[in-house]
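Justification of computing resources. Each target in the renewal requires a structure prediction run like the one illustrated here; the chain below, 157 residues long, is used simply to show the kind of job we budget for.
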Amino acid sequence: MTNRDAAPTVGEVSDESTFMDQIRGSGLRVTRPRVAVLEAVHSHPHADTDTIVGAVRSTLPDVSTQAVYDVLRALTTARLIRRIQPSGLVSRYEARINDNHHHVVCRQCGTIGDVDCAIGESPCLTPSNNQGFVVDEAEVIYWGLCPDCSAAQPETA
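Resulting structure tokens:
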């Protein structure tokens, strides 16, 4: 729904009620900051904390930065969102969870994109020696230049 004041029509569920159900279903108490942060992460894939704070403050202007950090930690622990931190970048958050996907990161501008699992089901990559571990997830980060940064590079002869 684009109009936040409009009530859902028959058979339609608002995003907010879906977020409330997800929070409740994870065993957490539903609070306005938790709903706002979950909505912000869904609306801004791979966003850093500052971006999420800004998005949350657009609906809850008095929320503190510490409150957003606390909610991000709680939602990550509850596995409602995922925290990623490619080397050299600040933590980012995403709502795409439980599918063992990977990421591609631009070395120049830091843009992050999702890459589906390389082959099959989790962990989709098998270690040469699992050292006795039962591996259930693989995390891969591909590095390179995004199309915009690549196009801006001078051509080599």
